[in-house]
Please model this.
Amino acid sequence: MIRNLRRAVRRAYRRKVDLSHPARSPLGSAVVNCVGYAGGKRQSGHCPPDEALRRVRKENRADSDSNGFVWIGLHEPTHEEFASVAELFELHPLAVADAVDEHRRPKVVPYDDILLAVFKTVGYAGHDEVVESGEITVIIGRDFVITIRSGRYGSLGPLREALEAMPDQLAKGPSSVLHAIADFVVDEYVVVADAVEEDIEVVESAVFSERAGRGEAGRNDAARVYQLKRELLEFKRATTPLSRPLEALATQPSPLIAPAIRPYFRDVTDHLARAGEQISGYDALLDSILQAHLAQMTVEQNESMRRITAWAAIVAVPTMVCGVYGMNFDHMPELRSVYGYPAVLTVIVVACVVIHRGFRRNGWL
Amino acid sequence: MIRNLRRAVRRAYRRKVDLSHPARSPLGSAVVNCVGYAGGKRQSGHCPPDEALRRVRKENRADSDSNGFVWIGLHEPTHEEFASVAELFELHPLAVADAVDEHRRPKVVPYDDILLAVFKTVGYAGHDEVVESGEITVIIGRDFVITIRSGRYGSLGPLREALEAMPDQLAKGPSSVLHAIADFVVDEYVVVADAVEEDIEVVESAVFSERAGRGEAGRNDAARVYQLKRELLEFKRATTPLSRPLEALATQPSPLIAPAIRPYFRDVTDHLARAGEQISGYDALLDSILQAHLAQMTVEQNESMRRITAWAAIVAVPTMVCGVYGMNFDHMPELRSVYGYPAVLTVIVVACVVIHRGFRRNGWL
Amino acid sequence: MIRNLRRAVRRAYRRKVDLSHPARSPLGSAVVNCVGYAGGKRQSGHCPPDEALRRVRKENRADSDSNGFVWIGLHEPTHEEFASVAELFELHPLAVADAVDEHRRPKVVPYDDILLAVFKTVGYAGHDEVVESGEITVIIGRDFVITIRSGRYGSLGPLREALEAMPDQLAKGPSSVLHAIADFVVDEYVVVADAVEEDIEVVESAVFSERAGRGEAGRNDAARVYQLKRELLEFKRATTPLSRPLEALATQPSPLIAPAIRPYFRDVTDHLARAGEQISGYDALLDSILQAHLAQMTVEQNESMRRITAWAAIVAVPTMVCGVYGMNFDHMPELRSVYGYPAVLTVIVVACVVIHRGFRRNGWL
Amino acid sequence: MIRNLRRAVRRAYRRKVDLSHPARSPLGSAVVNCVGYAGGKRQSGHCPPDEALRRVRKENRADSDSNGFVWIGLHEPTHEEFASVAELFELHPLAVADAVDEHRRPKVVPYDDILLAVFKTVGYAGHDEVVESGEITVIIGRDFVITIRSGRYGSLGPLREALEAMPDQLAKGPSSVLHAIADFVVDEYVVVADAVEEDIEVVESAVFSERAGRGEAGRNDAARVYQLKRELLEFKRATTPLSRPLEALATQPSPLIAPAIRPYFRDVTDHLARAGEQISGYDALLDSILQAHLAQMTVEQNESMRRITAWAAIVAVPTMVCGVYGMNFDHMPELRSVYGYPAVLTVIVVACVVIHRGFRRNGWL
Amino acid sequence: MIRNLRRAVRRAYRRKVDLSHPARSPLGSAVVNCVGYAGGKRQSGHCPPDEALRRVRKENRADSDSNGFVWIGLHEPTHEEFASVAELFELHPLAVADAVDEHRRPKVVPYDDILLAVFKTVGYAGHDEVVESGEITVIIGRDFVITIRSGRYGSLGPLREALEAMPDQLAKGPSSVLHAIADFVVDEYVVVADAVEEDIEVVESAVFSERAGRGEAGRNDAARVYQLKRELLEFKRATTPLSRPLEALATQPSPLIAPAIRPYFRDVTDHLARAGEQISGYDALLDSILQAHLAQMTVEQNESMRRITAWAAIVAVPTMVCGVYGMNFDHMPELRSVYGYPAVLTVIVVACVVIHRGFRRNGWL
Model:
């Protein structure tokens, strides 16, 4: 069931159909969606946030097991656009700042009676640029969920539809939405980590191939390894800060997290830990690749050096002999002999062959 | 006794006779085995899981010390095949997902009234590929054990037979099976870690031999070290996540773990720690090998360089002298002298010998 | 709101208008400012510290919700100048030493009934010298705040004005000033960390460019990487010691920190953690740059080596052939032939071309 | 006192007189010794273990302060030989396995009412092989001590004699023996760590000497550093697992450890920590040696390279000039001049001297 | 005040006037001093330890606020010399061993009713050898302080005088002496750490200068970096073990530490932490220096290589041309032409110039 959710969502995610979401217009430019849920079921029609909240609260008073809530989805709201929402739900000023600011750290922090989570979404954009970030902020209260998305990736539309197909889960209240989003984001991490593994394999086979270090590509091997390291750093900064607070959600009782949802957070923590272990493992591997690459290049250099030396030694023989018989002394008896020239040529060839064999035998050639 | 178990099992394991286990057919394709145990003794005959569970529960009600349980063995069940088992034992949906999903992290997690453990099995497939993974999932409840195996290695048939030969152990209930499997898996880690040690010794003797870095093999030394590092990473990912939860089983009371079994888990933890220490030690050693290899190659390069320089200097002498007397000036008195030629030859030979000795003395040749 | 504070302050900070602050003269050379606040509002006029303190205490006795306090700003006071202030507020002798000494570690320490915080301020002075330090010491008591500043950067004038524009915040008492300063300092860290990121990008593009390692600049690439590492170390020493005590302020109740201010400190801690993660990430990146740079240089060296070898082999052909026909033997039939010379020239050219093509094909040229 | 014990023991240890211990024969092949102690005094004569245990228990019942115990010493017992001892003292089956198995991890673990400790002994066998391991297992119960030794080193005979000379210590019961053995083993670690320091100094002076990297020895510098690192790893695996359980013995109350013995364990922990710090310090130093060695070799290579270049440039001058005047043109007026030859020789010599001086000045020669 | 103490002491320390301390003779060779203090004031005259102790205890009984104590200073006592002191103050045998043994680890350990601290003193002996160690052992009891000093540095005479000038501090009892010594020792660490920083700057400017790696000095750059690393290791071993126990003194109540002294220990801990951070920062910097040095040397090697190649190519032109016209063929029409010689010379010069420019342009020359 929860797996099916992921699969459904992921497929949709691949298509990347989000920015033109039809729900964008009716409620102003930043509010993508605003729906009430009660007892796990979606209430009919879009309506302004205050109206939806009023309806849900009435329902909750009537039926204490309803766990009804309003889910407002925003996309890159400005300070002004968010101000009215913040006022409606009486958010703490720091939570407001946390929700709207750019360049935030991923985190899960409790404020008086709400819980604010910031997630970095990562996408895999081919071998050129592995990791790219957007942000999803989730604020849950007792009877509302606010989701704020920025960046091109990570549309929550398909996720909302998948969740609506599981009324049992939605009936557990706002924390089920927080879990669904955390699960969705963390699952992407696992996908990207696997993609990074493939990239590493490509680099490996380039670096350890026979023609490694030759030509244009060879000169860039080290740069590619570095590029991967840099992306892993970016990736690590998106994932590491989440592990402690997510574990806290999974293990410590909190009034905002339904007890039936808590084991689901342990599952998310587990996936996050897996991605984290992969990342730090790859990071160490990349260091080793560089190190091994360097050693290998040095070995090859040694070979070139030995080969130069050997050929220089072989060429030195005719040079020296010809030099001697190129001197212009009047009295050089060998020069007068009929057999001098062929004898010298023979000596040169034989000496060269002997030296060549010697170098062959000790592995220099 | 527990050691004998291991020995018996390991020998069987070496033979790798598992996929064609005769128990596979009677109970459908995925269910390899389904047997009830009471008071440590195997109940007669195979029967469907629900029937076996009914019988065991009846027995347990009759004799509260019986600790009877049903042990169902599955091999790579599909979602559908597992669904009926999950329903029979009323498993938590997340536990079901954990049991059937691919690419899981090793773990030991409690759900309401069951305990789920995922182990990665590793095998040693010769020097080419050291580490290969399968998975064993164990779910224990108050009166049942479900084991799910995937991959080619790690048949549990021999282990089951060995356990059945120790009724005292089996009489302690389901946790005795969990321990036997954990012990079996972790013991394999120790065996593989020792095998990795041998591989490292092979690499060491290649890297530090006199002919290191020469020929085809020499070019691959660094690649082999890297290959070992990569496998250790894989190995680490199989073992590290287990250490904390296994230690918890050994030290914290749990209703599903019989108190008499708890010290046995401490023993398993100890073996796991040993394998873990070996692995991280080898990992560091491999870094040092690369580092030392690089230093050694550089030293050798220096030697080659010095040797080239020395020979170039020696060859420069006849080249220069012959060059001088190869000039075509009309007035070069030496050329006319009868003793010119032998004198020049003597000068050249003496100069070369002197220079050669000089280089010998300062260690360049 | 708190963000607006930062923005206002930062803009002022950029202008660096501090040393000539007009408030410097009236109260002696070191006392830059001395103002009383009650109920978040500034009391009229400058007055000597003892007078201001007396007035505030009277006010606090009258209205227990007033949270009035005196804020004294000092700039590099001498021991003597600080002695009178210390006496007035009955500071612990160790706190006095901590406040006036040079070369202190950043810290937040409680003394009997005061809290002393030492912050290192960092400034970004262009690409030449990234990090430069001043110090701000803050001492808060029940009804006073003492701020001591040293170094050229980090004037607190604009910050004071910005705070005075937020009477609600000031009305929470002395801890609001401590927070404002901590927030201001830590925000600078984030700015500088981002600036360092830009520097790293500059170094990256220099190191991985095609002409890396050539000419004057190339020789300094490694030195620049090292320079950045050194500055990060300095930066780390300014930030790391703060994280634990700031987290303590955010999570542990303290009589000097108003409960409404505590979540604000969590916000500061979060920003500090972000800067800290950036720094240690960059630190690791710089190591990798050096490592990759080295590997790349070695690859290039290999290429040069192969190219030398190839050209030396090509040049060896005419040298040997010409050497042979430069010998002075009487009986060398080729020398007498009319076609000898053109034949030899042809042989030389053909041999050179063939060898050249061979090297081209195996990638040496 | 405790120091004197060490000294006495260590001296004996140096002599390595153990395998032919006379106590071996009387009680079967594996039992080296079996003596009862009461009130710190040795009871007369050897006798079978069951008889000795009966006597001691009688004594303890008579005098509750007697702290009497039987000390059985075994040397590499087989499973069968140990079985009777295990039965007599009613040992837990896992403790039996732990006591007899090979390849165990050092540890201190409590079983129901006994404490089992496994120590690795290390010896320093000259510069060739620094670290060599044996094992000592100690099992203490309320009124017995079982020591099991394997390997050539670490005879406990002298230690037993030294302890018997300190009846006060023995009178504190079985834990005094455990301490004496722990102290003895850990003290050896300190001795070996100091010996390793000397080895490192030898390597240092080889690596940083003027003739470093030359000749046969030079080629092995890196291999020697690696060899030391490998031995430190072995050493670390012997010492690290002990630190936590020994600290637990020193700080946590345990019914088997006499309170008066506990501070002595803190002393042992302290020595172990010292050895551990030394080891990890040396480990880091060896990395730095390799690193520095590499840098130094590269510097030297640079020098060789510059020197080759300089000499090649100097030799190029006469080669070119002589080449010119070796040409056979009919119309070369210089060749006809009487002063041509001496003039050319002068030009060559002057040019060479000038170039040589130039290279001297810029440090290439 | 506490700062003034440091300054006074440090100045004296610089003079290094200790071994000939006049107090050495009167009380036997090892006892340097023995004085009683009561209410912070020094009691008149030297007297034997037992007499002094008797007097102080009498005083303490009379006035419970007196906090009187005896301070005995020893210098490298033998076992025998220390035995009588140990007996007088009824020290634990392990404390005695700890006090007299050589090669101890720095530590602060409590024994029954005393506290024993071992400090390593470090001195800065110029650039040749940065770190040198002595030891100060302090034992404090309820009414006595024993200080034992070994090594040439670290005389406690001036410190005693400075303390006697602060009777308020002394009146807090024996822990005031322990603090003064800890403060004194740790302050030296800060001084030495700053001195090490200067050494690192010297190494930096040597390694990154333009003539780095040339001549005798260049060959030793790596060795110097290593030397500094080794000294930092020594330094770290002196400081690291102290941080935990000193922090314990600062934060945990202890009957032997006067409550008014505890904040002073926090100050010491803070200084120790600063020195520790500096040391580990420098340690990492030295690694980076080596790494950067290596990269820089490789870059320079590349340049040399390119320059050799370029010059070899230039020289190859005249060599080949002259070789051709040095051949002795009868039919070489160019040789007969009047313009042959000047034409060939022109061709050679032009070719060389063109090639030279080409290499200039692509940065090889």
Summary: The interface with chain B takes residues 326 of chain E (CB under 8 Å).
